[in-house]
Specification:
heterodimer; A: 458 residues; alpha/beta; five-stranded mixed beta sheet; three-stranded antiparallel beta sheet; 11 strands; globular; B: 303 residues; mainly alpha; MetI-like fold; 2 domains; 74% helix; 3% strand
């Protein structure tokens, strides 16, 4: 009954480990950037950074990225005194849960963590992340695509993390199904809706797409594309919530009608049934992030050669835009005993040209740096799964159309669950989606108020 | 060889006071009991008296959380649902377990060992695996039941729909625990002395009469035990709905069962304090139901 509230015994050993690691570090204390004073934005001098990087140090890095040892090895080669212990503490939410527990217990938290863009405010509200400006991160602004830098920047100009991979949204589609039914690649959402009706009428077993009723990340990406600003935070305790404003209602009306008419699928994604559906051609498109092409070629092998990529359909064809779904960053935990080394690690891992490129070639991550997104060898890749189409080029163009001002709420898990239980449920149950947006808005507002926020909007 | 050891006179050890030895013997248990059971429970009780907010930090609120929880429609709905689940699922499961145990005990079955093992095996399957498996079987598109219906031109059964879900969950739990309960009942039946059966046979009782008048009364303590386990299991229903939530997110929400609600409050809303309160209230409900149940069972026995 009370099991989930207590830390696992393994954190005890990790505590011992951290104490030992802290004792080893000599330079960090002198730098004035240790532990609680990490919020000061006074720059750390290059001499201090150099000194710290030559001091024998043990860092712990929580990440779910497979084979990241290869990139970490590059860092350890450049800074032989600093050793990094890579720990896989789960992907996304499970890792955040463990991280929160460790932070609450004041023991067992890592020095650096893998963190998704949308989760950053959830951890800055609790003052858990270290501002990387004093450690030279400001100089990296021009290295990264503008919108990714917007995602890692705080309202006070802080730099909370360094972008690693991204997921600007596009549309993967089955060329064979489109050809068979004489469907053109839809350039606007109106054309998309017409195609959805036409396709399902022609073949009742096939749907143009599946908008998963449990996937708030896709909804947020589509909101982002439509130009919505659902969450705007100013200061620490003020938040404006507008998930049922005019833009949101337009989206709700659009998708709600398609779902109600039964011309699109609404089944949950990343389940066995969903994988089977993609393999068996139940859905003719998948609206997804730029990580989607590599993911799909691994999960729908039976359909190799049949897929192509295109930008998302547009609300205004004259002003093409997109949103982001997925991608992640490296952040430094504020309680680290070695802020200099940890901050240098976060920057090196994602901005060193060799390391950043390795993420694209080894892990098939979609890059966050401008250099890679314009590198000919990356853009020229023509995977057979997509019939030799230059898929990277398409998504690189899309990445340039993502609005840099989109913000996330500081309690995203709750917002996501509330979406599934209101908007997602309305899609699945074929009920009024616009009305469900109102329930979503009021649930978020009630929760934010109960958490002590001053809530505006709605 | 054996006799020599038995006959060797043993020098009796110097007498010790019983008191100190007793304390030493129970010390390991008491230490573990305190550390692993009472301390967490006490800490959870302590937590339940506070409220922590993202803005404003932690404040002492006394019993406010309990007042909120007792009026919380989500919690009450969750408790109501598991109570309904208990009323439907447990009788079915125990009746099945009873039938299997009686059939095995009758000695009339061929391949009794194989059957016994077959019914028991699902209990050895972790509930997570079992739920994933059933989740696949229930699949509305590519699950085998849907496929068969499709081939027969029949409408596919909607195992994961709102109205079927509780039944689908009950089916999974029944599948998992029939064998376990059957083993308990079967073991109890094996302890019935053979003379009773012989005497009954002499008196001309048939197999049904023996089952009704000898076996069932003998099973009463074991049945009470299985029922008590089932009360606790039902009210703590968590694994199965948590996993099926992924395939039916519009049906199973974050407060579908009381335990799931406690989990969601703790890990989705980050309201650890309120989650502790919810857990305590759920624990209290389980204690009350179990106790009420034991009371009636005992009263009936003495009556």
């Amino acid at each position: 009954m009370s099991g989930p509230f207590f830390n696992s015994p393994s954190s005890l050993s990790r505590r011992g480990f951290l104490v030992a690691a802290g004792a080893l570090s000599l330079a960090a204390c002198g730098g004035g950037g240790g532990g609680t004073s990490g919020s000061s934005s006074k720059p750390v001098s290059q001499a201090d950074i150099d000194k710290a990087m030559k001091t024998p140090t043990q860092l712990t890095f929580w990440t779910w990225v497979p084979n990241i040892d290869k990139e970490v090895a590059l860092f350890e080669k450049k800074y032989p005194a600093v050793k990094v212990k890579v720990v896989n503490a789960g992907q996304g939410t499970p890792q955040y849960t463990k991280l929160r527990t460790a932070l609450k217990a004041n023991s067992g938290a890592p020095d650096m963590v893998q963190i998704e863009f949308q989760a950053i405010p959830t951890f800055t509200i609790t003052d858990s992340l270290l501002d990387l400006r004093p450690y030279g991160a400001s100089a990296l602004k021009s290295t990264f695509v503008d919108w990714t830098w917007g995602q890692v920047s705080g309202s006070g100009g802080e730099i909370w993390a360094i972008p690693q991979d991204t997921g600007p949204m596009g549309m993967l589609y089955r060329k064979d199904i489109f050809d068979q039914h004489g469907i053109q690649v839809p350039a606007t959402w109106d054309e998309f809706a017409a195609a959805a009706r036409k396709l399902h009428k022609a073949d009742p077993d096939v749907y143009l797409t599946n908008l998963a009723a449990n996937q708030v990340a896709a909804w947020h990406g589509l909101l982002w594309q439509a130009g919505a600003k659902p969450y705007v935070t100013s200061g620490k305790s003020d938040i404006t919530v507008s998930v049922d404003d005019a833009v949101s209602k337009k989206l709700g009306e659009y998708w709600g009608t398609l779902a109600k008419d039964g011309v699109i699928g609404v089944e949950p994604d990343f389940t066995d049934a969903w994988y089977a559906a993609l393999n068996k051609g139940k859905y003719a498109t998948w609206l997804t992030g730029a990580w989607g092409p590599a993911f799909l070629s691994g999960s729908a092998k039976a359909t190799s050669g049949k897929w192509r990529a295109a930008p998302l359909p547009q609300w205004d064809a004259a002003k093409p835009s997109s949103g982001n779904w997925g991608g992640s960053t490296t952040a430094v935990i504020r309680s680290t005993k070695n802020p200099v080394q940890a901050a240098v690690f976060a920057q090196f891992l994602n901005s060193d040209p060799t390391s950043a490129k390795m993420f694209a070639t080894e892990q098939f991550f979609f890059p966050a740096t401008k250099t890679l997104l314009s590198e000919p060898s990356f853009l020229a890749e023509a995977p057979a799964f997509y019939g030799g189409q230059k898929v990277n080029q398409i998504f690189a163009d899309i990445s340039a159309q993502v609005d840099p001002a989109f913000q996330w709420p500081p309690f995203l898990d709750r917002v996501a669950t509330d979406w599934t239980e209101t908007v997602g449920k309305s899609l699945a149950d074929k009920t009024d989606t616009v009305r469900a947006l109102g329930s979503w808005q009021s649930r978020i507002t009630t929760f934010a108020k109960s958490q002590g926020f001053t809530v505006k909007g709605g | 060889m054996a006799t020599t050891t038995v006959n060797t006179p043993v020098k009796s050890p110097p007498r010790r006071r019983h008191g100190s030895a007793g304390v030493l013997f129970i010390a390991p248990f008491m230490v573990l009991f305190l550390l692993l059971f009472l301390a967490p429970l006490g800490y959870a009780a302590y937590l339940s008296l506070f409220q922590e907010r993202l803005i404003g930090g932690s404040t002492f609120v006394g019993l406010d959380n309990y007042v909120t929880a007792l009026k919380d429609p989500e919690l009450l709905k969750g408790i109501g649902r598991v109570a309904l689940f208990f009323v439907i699922q447990v009788p079915v499961m125990l009746l099945l377990a009873l039938c299997f145990a009686l059939a095995l005990d009758s000695g009339l079955l061929r391949l009794a060992r194989v059957i016994r093992l077959g019914i028991f095996v699902p209990y050895a399957v972790p509930s997570v695996i079992a739920t994933l498996m059933w989740g696949y079987l229930y699949g509305p598109d590519f699950g085998p039941f849907a496929q068969i219906s499709h081939d027969l031109q029949l409408p596919a059964p909607h195992f994961l729909s709102d109205s079927w879900m509780l039944g689908s969950l009950a089916n999974i739990v029944t599948w998992e625990f029939v064998g376990y309960n059957m083993i308990i009942l079967y073991a109890a039946l094996r302890t019935v002395p053979g003379e009773l059966y012989e005497a009954a046979a002499m008196d001309g009782a048939g197999a049904w009469r023996i089952a009704w008048s000898i076996k069932l009364p003998a099973l009463r303590p074991a049945l009470t035990l299985t029922l008590l386990f089932s009360v606790i299991g039902s009210f703590q229903l968590f694994n199965e709905p948590k996993l099926l939530m992924k395939v039916a997110p519009a049906v199973i929400d974050s407060s579908y069962t009381a335990n799931l609600y406690a989990y969601s409050v703790a890990f989705i809303s980050q309201q650890t304090n309120y989650a502790a309160t919810v857990s305590f209230i759920l624990g209290l409900v389980i204690v009350i139901v179990s106790y009420a149940f034991l009371l009636t069972a005992n009263r009936r026995r003495t009556a």
